[in-house]
Amino acid sequence: MTDQITHREMPTGTEGSEAGPPVVPREGFFAMWRRLQLGLWLAPLGILALVGVLYMYYQNLDLANAVRQTRSALQWETKLWPQMLQHVQIAFVATVVVVIVAVPLGIILTRPAFRRVGPYVVAVANSGQALPAYGLLVLFGAAMGMNRTAAMWAFVVYALLPVLRNTMVGLDQVDRSVIEAGRGMGMTRMLVLTRIELPLAVPVILAGVRVAMVLNIGMATLAFLIGGGALGVTIYSGIELNQNSVLIVGAVLVAIVALTFDWLGAVAERYLRPRGI
Amino acid sequence: MSSEAKIRLDRVEKKYHGTSVPAVEELSLDVHEGEILVLVGPSGCGKSTTLRLINRMIEPTGGKIYLDDEDVTTVDPDKLRRRIGYVIQQIGLFPHQTIAQNIATVPRMLKWDKARIAARADELLHLAGLDPEIYRDRYPKELSGGQAQRVGVARALGADPEIMLMDEPFGAIDPITRERLQNEFLRLQAELKKTIVFVTHDIDEAIKMGDRIAILGERSVIRQLDTPERILAFPVDQFVDDFIGAGSTIKGLNFEQLSGLRLGGYPTIRSDQSPQAGLEALNESNKTWLLVVDEQNRPMRWMREGDLQQSTGSYQDEGSEVRIRLNAEDTLFDSLEQMLQSESGSCCVVDRHGALTGVVEMAHLRRAIRRAQVEARRHYEDLEDNA
């Protein structure tokens, strides 16, 4: 290895060879782990394992001899499955709305003309998260009626901040010299935004979206408080009925949904990241 | 005004809000077609600002900018910039685009067709000394600093602009690579003949790169604008003198070739002549050394009076060997370097066949320096008289 370095011929011509042959260090275990993204592909196995455990637990419950309420609460076709769909729907729609609102807002707030108001808007978005989630829900429920839509909007406000902040940070961290070079070559501000700034900010923005998604799945558990349904209903029943089995099934289902979407986020981050960075 | 001015700045001014002193004060400047004009000055003098006024990355608050006698002070700045190559010190390659895509930035905006863009990218990579097969599809992070800067220059040349603006392009590169890039760039420029405005804070780089140099003081006021030779020979004031620093005379020697010197006679004998003839020749001149040349008039040995007196006439291993021969194209700087190393304090100049054409001595250099200084001073006196 040292031979390679010390006896390297001095490049003489215009060959642009000053980089020389890359010296490849022996790859450690963690480096290999990172390179192959093993975490990314082992996570589904973990999630599947969790599903399996829950399935076995559910099968072994002696529902026939349980109290009526418990039996009713744990019905798959009429309770658990529809609730799970509601859960995903609330979280997903809320996240999509968050992205639709927060990304353009973040873009506008990083433009020179609006840069000065950025901190104030972030402060407002911050208060959305600082408010107790319960209070926020009730506020929206009171204003918009006790239904799922109201819950969704409450979660939009709640999850706005991570996407907004990450959009702004992602755009701000783009190397000024790259933008300067683009502008200097005659790219319009719009071209610089769409061809340079946004692609380079994608990883950071996606990280924010992933956080919002997971946040919303957690929050959707509370949607039942204003009549929004979702898996919170089952968990709450478990507490009310003092039936641990109901509680556990509800909570583990929420965990499975959350982990699945977090994994989807990770996959998106991995494959939507522009090459070269 | 002269129509040869490719870029003309007419009392261009930049004043920032809330400051009483302008950053650039009423600057008028002509850049001729095909020349490298270097803007050089201490940090904070506004040289980068001045450069960025030309492509209106910074909008001037007063004055006019002309390209080819066309007033571009109010045209669409984005369209203007597509006509002007722009290279900055940090390079600013787009990390998420391949080298070829980076180079294609301006052609793409000008809506060239795909085949033409691809061909142009390959051509420019060749020009930059990078093999397209290897580098076309790589990403900027895989390049070394020197390679990245080459790509930066190639990208600026993308749509073959007539004008290039370069803001300390080699500033962040190690000295050895920088030297190489400078030389490559000068070779390229000899071919391409672009009109270039080049900013640097390094006077040596300015001297090397510039056809003309503008030395800027505070608020981008031009203290002296001239060829490097004349600036070195005749700094107009203390500011310029301080800025070019010590050794300006020696640096000036770089600009004159030995062919420009009038070398007087020098005592020589041919190797078939006797030492006695040599002694006579030596006495006739007032020199201390004599040259022995062979039948083709090629210098062989340096001889002193004492050497000649003891000589057997064969001249083998007598006196000292002539080790260094310069050509007419070598500079006075080269000859000074050799003279300082040689025992005789002088240096042989030979033609293509190795035949002696003259001997350079310190007195020649002194005379050349004095002549350059006198010429430069006279030039400035003439300018004053005409003004």
UniProtKB/TrEMBL annotation, chain A:
UniProt domain ABC transmembrane type-1: residue ranges: 84-265
Alphabetical keyword list: Membrane, Transmembrane, Transmembrane helix, Transport
Region described as Disordered: spans on this chain: 1-21
One Pfam short name: BPD_transp_1
Transmembrane annotation, as ranges: 38-58, 88-109, 121-144, 150-171, 192-213, 219-239, 246-266
InterPro entries per the UniProt record, alphabetical: ABC_transp_perm/SBD, MetI-like, MetI-like_sf
Record-given protein name: ABC transporter permease
Similarity remark: Belongs to the binding-protein-dependent transport system permease family.
Major location (coarse): membrane
Cell compartments where the protein resides: Cell membrane; Membrane
Topology within the bilayer: Multi-pass membrane protein
Domain of life: Bacteria
Automatic annotation (TrEMBL), chain B:
UniProt similarity note: Belongs to the ABC transporter superfamily.
Name of the protein in its database record: ABC transporter ATP-binding protein
Claim: Nucleotide-binding is one of the keywords in the record: yes
Ranges where the ABC transporter domain occurs: 7-243
Organism phylogeny: Bacteria, Bacillati, Actinomycetota, Actinomycetes, Micrococcales
Molecular functions per Gene Ontology: ATP binding
Transmembrane annotation, as ranges: none
NCBIfam families from the UniProt entry: proV
Pfam family, one: ABC_tran
PROSITE patterns: ABC_TRANSPORTER_1, ABC_TRANSPORTER_2
Keywords for this protein: ATP-binding, Nucleotide-binding, Repeat, Transport
Organism annotation: Actinotalea lenta
